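thought: fold this chain, then report.
action: predict
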Amino acid sequence: MNAIKEVNGLTFERRAVKTRLLNFGDDLLQAIQEYVLPLKQEGDWLAISEKVVSVCQNNVRHINTVKAGWLATTIVKYVKKYPKDIGYSRAEKMQVAVEMAGRPRMVLAIILGVLGKAVGIKGVFWMVAGNRVSEIDGFNPDAMWPYTEYAILPPKNPQQLCNNIEQKLKIPTVIIDGNNINVKIISMSRGVPVNKKMARLSLLDNPMGQDDEMTPFILVHKNV
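observation:
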């Protein structure tokens, strides 16, 4: 699948790369070498879903290991809900965030988040919670099995991974956190030919298919 996106007068071609189902503990670099490199063209850079990175790192939590406590159950009552994205509507997912950030920090995030909303400042809760909890994915009933049963944690050492991919496989790389609401650049290697803002805008419609589409890699090319 090819998709064109125009950003500030520049045109980006995004080519989705079809793979097999990548499983927990798979070798990410080997998958890139097998599926991406044969399709790479001069000037391409690679965008990778953070979800597939964490799956390959086996950096996940099964729902059977998570028991939502009172704090997580309380918080999900007040977080913003989106009609096209599960977000943090499940208490089990918020419990994972509580365990990553710690209860005191999450309580502080609630208090400051409420105060921030009162004066029109959005995102204070996630900023204070920190610890990359906004990057947690999973426990999504609409996802492909077995991902329905897993929380996907933030990738480990994403900057180092991007650098390794560029150095070893000779393709500049970014890792993104993308959903139906927003796209965030987690990390990017030095050779990516655009800055972080432009990289994000070129992928803002989140052209990846991380479920049964099985296209967790996107080759991006800035047309001159």
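thought: worth noting. The chain has eight helices and nine strands.
final: tokens above.
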